[in-house]
Amino acid sequence: xxxxxxxxxxxxxxxxxxxxxxxxxxxxxxxxxxxxxxxxxxxxxxxxxxxxxxxxxxxxxxxxxxxxxxxxxxxxxxxxxxxxxxxxxxxxxxxxxxxxxxxxxxxxxxxxxxxxxxxxxxxxxxxxxxxxxxxxxxxxxxxxxxxxxxxxxxxxxxxxxxxxxxxxxxxxxxxxxxxxxxxxxxxxxxxxxxxxxxxxxxxxxx
Length: 206
Prior knowledge:
With 206 residues, the chain is mainly β. The protein has two helices and eleven strands.
């Protein structure tokens, strides 16, 4: 009896994390959106949507120092291979009594910058984890009220730097941690991240 032919498995390239088929071109590089995606919205076609990452987190170093620790949302959309626009919105709340006066403050900040993702450089599969760094401009303000009366506030501008990484525990959700370095002491942010990558959009609509 003839032995049936058995095809050899597809080549596999080892990566940091789980190995992926060698023919998968999107496993490392984060890529910008296709300008034609608005004209390509029929089921069964590739949307070619931008890789995008959004995070929600808390700054650990503010826990116990303010009434409500600093929380924030940051988002990144890629405009070049592995390079993304970054913006973040951060809020905190503090209330205390000083010399018989009730004071509350709402510090806030908006960060704008550009991030570089090192996944392609170090061959780290983006569906498993990320490593990145971001120089950014931080615009900070604080709304202050004493016994219900608004006090003057000053807007501060400063340049800062963040570096961090994330680990994906599902197709879209993961955990992230970041170190922010600017004026004053370094700060540490941890939280949840949500990622959208091209291959997942393709599978969803094919």
